[in-house]
Amino acid sequence: MVFISTQRAAENEIVVALIDQQEATLKRLSYKIKDHITLVPANPNLKPKAYLPQRVQIQGVFMGLLRLKK
Question: pTM of the entire structure?
Fold first, then answer.
């Protein structure tokens, strides 16, 4: 279970991002590329992806993770 806050997302925060109204992802946020939102994965084997702002909706800022044992 992931806990999120609806506060405004700042540079380098982990966010829940909705891409093209279809795909939700949990990634680190970057505004370093002008006029783009870059989503940076925690996995170093994956590459960051830059999107035009109209393609990305920030749903919330990651606050914590709760893992339950089965």
Answer: 0.87
